[in-house]
Amino acid sequence: MSDRLRGDGVAGAARSVKEARPAKERMGKPGRAGLGAVRRDFAPWADPAAAPVIRFEGVCKRFGDAVAIDNLDLSIYRGEFFCLLGPSGCGKSTLMRMLAGFEQPDAGRILLDGVDQAGIPPHSRPVNMMFQSYALFPHMSVAQNIAFGLRQLGLAKADIQTRVDEMLAMVQLAPLARRKPHQLSGGQRQRVALARALARRPQVLLLDEPLGALDRKLREETQFELMDIQEELGATFLVVTHDQEEAMVMADRIAVMNHGRIAQLDTPGRIYEEPANRYVADFIGDVNLLEGVAVGRVDDLWRIACPATGGEVLVASDAMLTAGQQVAVAVRPEKIRIDRARPPDAVNVIPGEVWDIGYLGDWTTYVLKLAGGETLKTSRANVSRRVAEPVTWEETVFASFAPDAAVILTG
Amino acid sequence: MSRRGYRAPGAQRLVRWAPAIWLTLFFAAPFLLVVRLGFSEAATAQPPYRPVIDWSEGLAGVWAALQGLRLDNYALLLSDPLYVASALTSLQYASAATVLLLLVGFPIAHVLARQPEGRRELLLLLVILPFWTSFLIRVYAWIGILKPEGLLNAALLWLGLISSPLQIMNTGVAVMIGLVYSYLPFMVLPLYATLVKMDHSLLEAAQDLGATPARAFRSVTLPLAAPGIAAGALLCFIPMMGEFVIPDLLGGSDTLMIGRTLWSEFFSNRDWPMASAIAVVLLAVLLAPILAWRRLEDRAADGEAGQ
Prior knowledge:
By secondary structure, chain A is an alpha+beta fold. Chain A has helices at residues 2-20, 92-100, 142-152, 157-170, 186-198, 216-233, 244-250, 268-273, 278-283, and strands at 54-63, 66-76, 81-85, 107-112, 115-116, 127-130, 204-208, 236-241, 253-258, 261-266, 288-298, 301-306, 311-316, 326-331, 337-339, 348-359, 363-370, 375-381, 396-401, 406-409. In chain A, strand 16 (348-359) and strand 17 form a beta hairpin.
């Protein structure tokens, strides 16, 4: 009991320190024990006193017969890096465009800082958007593009110049200030778009697939840059993306969307390690979904009869199940180990034949064919350069996973 | 690979030279004839002018012709107020009609460009549809509409807006109506072509950055439509400067536009050299806006390169 109290005290102290110190220092601080590797100790959504900066309340939107947003509630907090993640057509872009004022909700309210945005035109909203196509004005130079939003504010010329220089320095484009957009590379255009959207110092920055047009290497670098800029400015970033890696790396929280609804709203770690349903488990990363029936409970373990494995598996879970309930056991490939001999102390052991091997350099993926014909995907980090006797095709191996490596899904 | 040894096949070479051959045969050669005519003198003869060069005397004749090069026609052009006045009238009509065409054409092109794709093509067809009928017949039709007992006056009388028929026929108003009506497609099409290419997200970006819709139009749509505005304006302005049919049919005898003056020099006065001089000066004057347009286009092409 006293330990828990002390723990809370430390967490509280950490939060107040975070407020006082420059944002940069927060990064890399050990967070509270939790699922996944935590980026930073920041969780205003867990604080009942915190007021969200963005609120969607029962928002609905249809386009003709198609439902784009289905009675959606969502709160996003100040300083949060929030990702809307989902396949194309899941409604994530519509949600963002409604916030910017380009679409009107059919029902429900959208509040920004507690102010209902109904009837407020796009040009009067305290948000700015970075467009997927960047939408840079082709007839204006880089500096003029960045100054555009400031000119609308009616600032003095000198002030505009100062702010433009500041922005150019932030995105490291000062030498290119006089270039036209078509004279820039894709990565440079992306930076101009970011600088232009941030020039007005919006409370909330909306980013529509901000890294979608960049190649892989540049995308990775830019992810971290975006995170640094967001921390430095302390602004709220709302990112729409279909790229789960992007969302996992950058976001404080992710809303996984499906058909106009939020399938799960949580931190990247929890989304990955504790998916709420089959859709999320399948959408994020690789997963083996073993369909089965709940049999009974042994201590804190559930016994699940899985026909695919030819028996029962034990899963550590506090899920409220009834015997006979249809469930799925979700196990990530990297949490399954394979051995040539049956591991004596393992709980869940599934024999199978190696069917496919995918060598990715850092990882090797093995697809096992189980007795019933189903496949099981496992992966292994290649921690050494040489392997004495590598596992090869058509070998019979034993896959095993710990009870707490799997998750029971009911949805 | 070196291009030196490469010889295009005959057909390909023909295609490459075809525009040059066409322009030489049907533009440069006739124009040179006109230029030569401009230095000649009217005569009661067949053809009704004196030859500039007396070929029967060989080189001496050419030398004599060069020495006695007659600039009388050009001198008369400047000194006789008739020509200057009709040129100025033409300039007035063409400029005013161009402005009107822009004001009418821009909203049409703008609405067209924002339509869904299927409907866009249908509406575009409607813009071009008048071309299916002869230009002359369409201008004649306006007589039926504009004359004192015509459709327009009948409609206005029936609505009670006027008590006696308006005299529109044979006035400048009728000429303006005719010009704007006839040249509207030439204004709408180039404007449409630039507006339809414009990325709509640019306007959204402008509004997102705090510009009102009016501001966004002024600082994004208008500058990006500039090449279309220039193309449409020139495409209308240049032929309207030399327009003959519309002022002749709708303007009555009072409307002295340069095209009509030219026509009456040719056919009423049978002064071919004078008419030729007018044509040469008109072309020289109109070259200026065309060159300006070319420069603008080059700049636009530069701006698009690499995008």
